[in-house]
């Protein structure tokens, strides 16, 4: 039976990009299966994120009740095995500056 693959996608401001990538790579994310031994593999794209903090929020950027638009990066990385995906998310949450980091995890299928 082959190892399950997961894809972690997260959004991060430019100032925290390096720290967040380093944290997830240290947790084991971004290792590509195969004889080549590739590590720290990811795809990064730039875009604009937006959010409006609620009354109980303690935002890292922006003000409560005000719509904020900012430059962010979207990072996509493969995680080999559920344990690696869980560890990568935990590492991301510790390294990310936002009160609630935006991320997604998908189980990948082999075809």
UniProtKB/TrEMBL annotation:
Positions in coiled-coil regions: none
UniProt xrefs under SUPFAM superfamilies: NIF3 (NGG1p interacting factor 3)-like
Signal peptide limits: none
Organism field: Decorospora gaudefroyi
Name this polypeptide is given: ATP phosphoribosyltransferase
Classification via InterPro entries: DUF34/NIF3_sf, N-reg_PII/ATP_PRibTrfase_C
């Amino acid at each position: 039976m082959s190892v399950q693959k997961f894809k972690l996608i997260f959004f991060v401001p430019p100032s925290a990009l390096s720290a967040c990538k380093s944290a997830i790579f240290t947790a084991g994310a971004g290792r590509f299966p195969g004889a080549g031994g590739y590590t720290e593999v990811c795809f990064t794209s730039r875009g604009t994120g937006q959010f409006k903090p609620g009354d109980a929020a303690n935002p890292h950027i922006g003000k409560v009740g005000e719509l904020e638009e900012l430059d962010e990066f979207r990072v996509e990385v493969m995680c080999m095995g559920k344990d690696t995906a869980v560890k990568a998310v935990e590492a991301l949450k510790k390294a990310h500056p936002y009160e609630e980091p935006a991320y997604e995890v998908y189980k990948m299928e082999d075809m």
